[in-house]
Amino acid sequence: MEKEKQVVKSYSLARIIKAGWINFRRNSFLSFGATGILALALLVLSGLIILNFFTDTVVSSLDEKVDVSVYFQDSAKEDQILKIKSDLEGLNNVKAVAYVSKEQALEDFKSRHGTDQLIQDSISELDYNPLQSSLNVKATAFGQYASIVKFLEDNPLKTAIDKINFYENEAAINRIESISKGLSVWGTTITIFLALVAVLVTFNTIRLTIYNKKEEIEIMKLVGASSWHIRGPFVAEGAFYGIFAAILALAIFYPAIHFASPKVLSFAPNINLQGYFMNYLGEMLLVVFGVGLLLGMISSGIAIRKHLKI
Amino acid sequence: MINFKKVTKKYTHHFTALEDINLEIKPGEFVSLVGPSGAGKSTLIKMLIKEDRPTSGQVILDGVDLADVRDRDIPFLRRKIGTIFQDFRLLDSKTAFENVAFALEVSGAGEDEIAEDVPRVLAIVGLSEKHTNFPKEMSGGEKQRLAIARALIHRPKIILADEPTGNLDLVNSYDVLKLLWRINELGTTVILATHDREIVNTVGKRVISMEKGRVVRDQLEGGKYII
């Protein structure tokens, strides 16, 4: 065992990498196939990252659109409203509560319809403020709105409340919730499925590449090569598949994003694919190169195991 | 040096490759192992590098019972023995130099040792000019000489040659034989398995004849191919 360790040590990393590189270069036909398949797998992976960004953005923008407004009676006093506000803020499932006073509501209304002369005239005709004070409640999650509404209905200051717009919007909220959940679930399912397919195809391609060399592996064993001497260069070769596949995948992916990004922006202004890609460039490179290297090396390592039995 | 004690190898109930083989081979001997195809010559050689194991009996090499050699120590055993095959068994994706260097690399040799020893051994087998060639660019005789160079690179105590001339013409066969002879004169034990009558009669040393898995004749000196 001691001897084995010494041998492994002297069989330096540089020599393993060099042998792997020579194999990669000389078997260019097989290397090209394995690298191509691995590049496709990495493209699928990059596509999935973007798909997840896409669904996340859609889900969170849907999320943003959902809230519940509580309108108060004209008779409600401001301290009552603020008490309810602080009660709501004490709840775990409430993300934010915004108070809009009668006056603020009127200001907002006026500025919103600043250009509409008819509305401006009608408002100034009135000698009172027809708008109500309100609290705008955002929950931490879709499913929480019903319990927040229940909390309000059980509140001792309930009499100050005129109406809660939850029931009118309930159907819409539920629908948005189910779309958003569906998007997340499908996004995850497709990601897992396609990632699995990509890994299996890559693994099998590398397995076939190594199967092709089983005679050479036999010969190596016959001249006294230990498992490490045989495995090392193959794993290094797998690493080269990974590196070149990552370069190839990015060389295809970046122009594709560059081309698609303005088209997506034109119908979904808050989804900036290229912006996302550039913001997370470091992470993207890390993931694509990391996965490429690991997939290449692990697949080679596993595929060769079977041929190493003496 | 090498001892076979009551070695039997059965592949199935119906097929016995070796039966009750008892042999002793001393250091420095040149042994021709002869017999028709299927006589068990290759099986005997495979036992020595633990490519195959006896069903019963003991194979002892340098005082070590090969049954006691653990799987992970087999590479060390194989580095002590140089093996030459009829089909050359060269690494097609490596050049002549790299084929020989690989055998040194696996025993942990440094770059300096490789740079010094490989050209020397290639010169011994007359392949200095071909060191950058791949096996597919070489003739049968050259391939076999390269295989011999690879077998020699460890300075092994034993060379096992399994039908090394089987794929070669007469001239190349004699070249290979002369090389084995020289190797033997330098003190290496050579075991040559062959069914080539001419070769065996030329060697004229110890000849062990096998038939149907048994040793039928063991001529210790001046042996001839007799079946």
Question: Explain this structure to me?
Answer:
The complex is a heterodimer of chains A (310) and B (227). Chain A folds into two domains: 2-62 and 177-308, no CATH class; 67-168, Alpha-Beta Plaits (2-Layer Sandwich). Chain A is built from twelve helices and four strands; from the N terminus they run αααβαβααβαβααααα. By secondary structure, chain A is of the alpha+beta class. Chain A has a four-stranded antiparallel β-sheet with strand order 2-3-1-4. Chain B has two domains: 1-80 and 156-227, P-loop containing nucleotide triphosphate hydrolases (Rossmann fold); 91-155, no CATH class. The two termini of chain B are 27 Å apart. Chain B is an alpha/beta fold. In chain B, helix 3 packs across helix 4. In chain B, the strands form two sheets. A six-stranded mixed β-sheet of chain B has the order 6-7-8-3-9-10, sandwiched between helices. In chain B, strands 2-1-4-5 form a four-stranded antiparallel β-sheet, with helices on one face. The chains are: A alpha+beta (310), B alpha/beta (227). The A-B interface holds A 1, 3-4, 6-7, 10-11, 15, 23, 26-27, 213, 216, 218-227, 229, 310 and B 49-51, 71-72, 74-79, 83, 89-93, 102-103, 105-110, 150, 154.
Outline of the structure:
In chain A, 74% of the residues lie in helices and 7% in strands.
Structural class of chain B: alpha/beta
Q: In angstroms, what separates the terminal alpha carbons of chain B?
A: 27 Å
Secondary-structure element series of chain A? HHHEHEHHEHEHHHHH
> What is the oligomeric state here?
heterodimer
Helix % of chain A is over 70%
Determine the mean pLDDT of chain B. Answer: 91
Query: What's the number of structural domains of chain A?
Result: 2
**Number of helical runs of chain B?**
7
What string, H for helix and E for strand, traces the elements of chain B in order?
A: EEEHEEHEHHHEHEHEE
Count of discrete structural domains of chain B: 2
Total strands of chain A: the figure is 4
Radius of gyration of chain B: 17 Å
* Coarse morphology of chain B: globular
- Give the biggest sheet of chain B: 6 strands, mixed
